[in-house]
Amino acid sequence: MSPDPARPELEQFVGALDLDAGADGEWHGTNTGEGHGVIFGGQLLAQTIVAAARTHDDKQVRSVQTVFARAGSTDTGVQLVVDPMHAGRSFASVAVSAVQGDRLCCRSIVLLDQPDDDLVRHEVPMPGVGSPPTDADDRWWQIETVGGVDLMAADVGPAELQVWSRFPGLPGDEVTGRAALAYASDGFLIGTAMRPHEGIDQSMAHQSVATTVLSHTISFHEPIDASGWLLLTQESTYAGHGRAYGRATVHAADGRHVASFVQDAMLRAVAPDRRN
After folding, report:
1. How far apart are the C-alpha atoms of 69 and 91, rounded to whole Å?
2. N or C end of the chain, less CB within 10 A?
3. Distance between CA atoms of 104 and 206, rounded to whole angstroms?
4. Separation between Cα atoms, residue 68 and residue 91, nearest integer Å
């Protein structure tokens, strides 16, 4: 299935997920164009999921644990190197390294599986935030914060944030859905950690405040359609020593708890002589 041709940004995103196979477990991908010259971490998460899924097409990605080592440049493409760890009837695992030349950008441990029948079942209920947006704009990636929270404005609030997210026209296969959710999950927890602190907000990032994601883990629980509305309910439970930690649950609009993720990030002041 092809992306909506009326949305060129979506076409570029899906194109970045259409990895070209190389030799010996290598895959090659383009960039989405996001990130202001530095590759957005969500892109690397998404491409990692695709590379792992293509290596084990009889299983689905269950979880991805990623450590971001260095920033990648949007000037050149990305090479995903897949190193098999284990492959069995029910489970498989691989290490995936995203590199540019001799520069290691990040490394992930990916768990894949074949789902079993329920022995037990429970899930975190969806928060009572009302229905998804009905007046969304025409952007390729539509996001809307619950309560109109603006992370770019210094509005003090709790270290919590709920975001509706969807990618209209996105292909409906499971691999692309999980990759798109991973992409979306990377961008909000640092801003969530800033919310309780007067005089600091996400507009200061990369200027007077140095921010970057250090590690990110996402687990998938249920089938995901990222072209429909997903609710990301996020909270930062700790910030200090130049670091911030956050966690989140993801619910589909029908109430299913479809994924969870956690993140460690850097959050520290930039020395005055190094500011733009």
Report:
1. 27
2. C
3. 22
4. 25
Could you read off the pLDDT of 113-169 as tens digits, one per residue? Answer: 999 999 999 999 999 998 999 876 789 999 999 998 888 776 789 999 999 999 999
First to last CA, the chain: 43
pLDDT in tens, 225-254: 999 999 999 999 999 999 999 999 999 999
Count CB atoms within 10 A of the CB of residue 143.
Answer: 17
Say which amino acid occupies 57: D
Total-model pTM: 0.93
What's the rounded Cα separation, in Å, for the pair 64 and 48? 8
